[in-house]
Amino acid sequence: MNDGAQTQRLDRAAIDRLLDLGGEKLLAGMIDLFLEHYPVRIQAARLGAAVGEHDAVRRAAHSLKSTAGNLGATSLQLLAARIEELATSEDSAYDALIGPFEEEFHAVRGLLEREREGLGT
Question: What structural domains does the chain harbor?
Answer without folding.
Answer: 4-117 (1.20.120.160)
